[in-house]
Hints:
Blueprint: H1 10-23, H2 29-38, H3 43-52, H4 60-67, H5 72-78, H6 82-85, H7 88-107, H8 109-112, H9 115-128, H10 137-143, H11 151-177, H12 181-190, H13 197-204, H14 208-220, H15 232-248, H16 251-277
Helix pairs in contact: 1-11, 1-16, 2-7, 4-5, 9-11, 9-16, 10-11, 11-15, 12-14
Amino acid sequence: xxxxxxxxxxxxxxxxxxxxxxxxxxxxxxxxxxxxxxxxxxxxxxxxxxxxxxxxxxxxxxxxxxxxxxxxxxxxxxxxxxxxxxxxxxxxxxxxxxxxxxxxxxxxxxxxxxxxxxxxxxxxxxxxxxxxxxxxxxxxxxxxxxxxxxxxxxxxxxxxxxxxxxxxxxxxxxxxxxxxxxxxxxxxxxxxxxxxxxxxxxxxxxxxxxxxxxxxxxxxxxxxxxxxxxxxxxxxxxxxxxxxxxxxxxxxxxxxxxxxxxxxxxxxxxxxxxxxxxxxxxxxxxxxx
Length: 289
């Protein structure tokens, strides 16, 4: 495959639109239906089981380590108990059914059967060929799963591989930056691109006191001001974290090449725009307050 001199943020842009389609599953009523049928009904249990099932019957420590920004006490409340309700293999099968139903509902059967979807799946899978397992546990676990035959599910699978590959590298960047899980959330929220605090409380198990304490630590480091906004040093640190994440995640997009990345970004951007327009995400998901 041709190696091209990619524009520095080309991989990040491609990842962003790929991840938009992957992320629809976390807010999907189809997923709730599938997981409820298995007996997994509470939101945190659904999330932990869904994303960690590829790792097998793991405990709270593994999930907390690989998810990074969830409160350990919340994780331990549901893991490993969730595996007594449904085995990881059952969760993976339910996830595949939910992904199929979600994409059909949001994109429509015609798009799923289109040449564009087949092309996008091929490009995304080709990019994923250059992902590497060492030091990337969530990617490595998903890389051991079979590639679905249907184009839209192959696309979803490839988007998952690329998401987890980048995510594992992102954690390395956060650790190097000296940000713990909640501090990472707080600083991302302060950029205006992260989740609102209410969603961190609802989905990550944190409370206002935890948030306030994290803000205090960040102010002591000179990264956050008294109004909860990033200082110049905070902005610079977040930019370096993203730049380092880009460097650690460069291989898949170098492998695909500039033209392939541009084409995949175009196709994935169309799918991402469609799922957003179809109401796949809560309107109040992102913001500073």
